[in-house]
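During the second year of the project, the team shifted from modelling isolated chains to modelling whole assemblies. The rationale, set out in the original proposal, was that interfaces cannot be judged from single-chain predictions alone. As a representative example for this report, we include one of the complexes processed in the last quarter. Its constituent sequences, exactly as entered into the pipeline, are reproduced here:
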Amino acid sequence: MTLSPDDWEVIRLSLKVAIVGVVMTLPIAFGLAYLLARGRFPGRILLDAIVHLPLVLPPVVTGWLLLIAFGRTGPIGAWLDRWFGVTLMFRWTGAALAAAVMALPLMVRAMRLSIEAVDRRLEGAARTLGAGRWRTFATITLPLSLPGIFAGLVLGFARSIGEFGATISFVSNIPGQTRTLPIAIYTALQLPDGESNVVRLAIVSVVLSLGALVASEWLVRRQGGRAHVL
Amino acid sequence: MSFDVAVEKKLGDAEIAVAFKSFTGLTALLGPSGSGKTSILNMIAGLITPDSGHIIVGGELLFGNGTDVRPERRHAGYVFQDARLFPHLRVRANLLYGARRGVSRIGLEEVVDLFGLDQLLDRWPRTLSGGEAQRVAIGRALLSNPSFLLLDEPLASLDQARADEIMGMIERVRDELKLPILYVSHNQAEVDRLAAQVVAIRR
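Output from the structure prediction step:
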């Protein structure tokens, strides 16, 4: 099996969109996970629900909501355009945003579980040993929740690579900008002679997703962690 | 005076109210399990906040009168019943975790010698036996430059031979480092051997 230049472009774009989307989401997801795991504030349940919304909404609806918010005349889109001259419409950055939003709930869930699993008595022990809140967080809470952060990254990446509905309704199907793997496969399926394209890209999808899972499992084991991504 | 404690705290259905003053090196809190001994230590260490009262250790006001010193500023050397070593750090890093809080009156080498830890330094906490973990925990507390020690049933999970060994180490710490020690136990024999003053806690 040889991949055509077009295939490589699709793969490169998909990786770029997924990696940028997930990396940009990581600190936000961790902050939300920490807030939901540890915070006691009014509106926590509402925040929890909002974070999970992309998981339960039809992706097309999520994409349409992004379109409304980030479109050229949308409240956020107009603001970005006016102040930064930035538009996400029909750009790979928009695809990355769609991937990020769709990956967010999965990432938050994984990270939240591992933050909740951290034994808070260990944090107390660190405090009695002279560590302030920040050092306790950085040396105890954060390292002990690394397996969950890792699992969140992998899940988010896999979700982003597979993202279809929100992306196509938000930023459409533009070769080289927003035509990621699933959208390229869908496009090929529409063509009478697209069969071989579909097969090649489907194999690539399987390899990428499996690769991410295996690589992360290997990394977690190498760290001596007892947690599993799988 | 080493400890001057008078605290009240409602925890769920239980109500803890205790008041004692001690003037000696090692003071024992003796009482059955469930009588709130650990909660008293947690209050002195600053991990839980009393509803009312005061805590003065070595002449320093830690709680009361509007003061509530944060746990990291209390300089408590707290040895927990379950050792509570950090699972992601090797023994050496565990020992040194609190060591940057000023120069301790005892150094790593002394602690390693005193507690026989030289074979354990590169091990992970999960590979240690109960007695080994407890020795590391005591060493970790001593290396954090504490002003006083809180020992929560440090012998509870050990067989008699190990318990005797650690008791001997505690005696040496008591006599050589001259730190005020508050020692929680439900074992009369331990307390008879170690303590000059005993505070009985009833349920």
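Chain B is about 30% helix and 25% strand. Chain B has one domain: 3-200.
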